[in-house]
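Internal tracking record. Fields below are filled automatically when a chain is submitted to the structure queue. Please do not edit lines marked as system-generated. If the sequence contains nonstandard residues, flag them in the REMARKS field before resubmitting.
Queue: standard
Priority: normal
Entity type: single polypeptide chain
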Amino acid sequence: MTKLNIGIILGSTREGRLSPQVGEWVKKIADERNDANYEIVDIAEYKLPLLGEADASEQAAAWNAKLASLDGFVFIVQEYNHSISASLKNALDYARETWNNKAAGIVSYGSVGGARAAEHLRGILGELSIADVRVHAALSLFTDFENFSVFKPADMHLTNVNAILDQVLAWSGALKTLRQ
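SYSTEM-GENERATED OUTPUT FOLLOWS
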């Protein structure tokens, strides 16, 4: 059986964003497991304009091709004004069927661990027919980031990240049968 392909989606495009640090940490944990093919997927690289405001057929095609190559996702989500970033919502909206029947986990961060953004994202994932897993890693800007900028996660988060990956792999494998 071939390994599943899991994308670690960086949910922000802002200058000075922290999601690359969190994404690399999740990928390092994931790669040590050697149970799937994990890759960072940075929405900033796709340069998606706001949906409907410009011709983005080339960017949308590349974005959808990347998503089609993946069996599941771990979203790195930061909380902006009690929600997800506009760039993540825009990226989610640029695809439809390529999201369907796949699984996703959430690693969030913010002043309250990004919990409100994670809950908002869960509703959007449901609409896109993405099965979100129960376990969630919530990182605090106050305790997991030195000076709000250098990621230094507490050891306790390792258990949750591994549990997220366990669930994403189980659900991604099961859902893959629906897409074949």
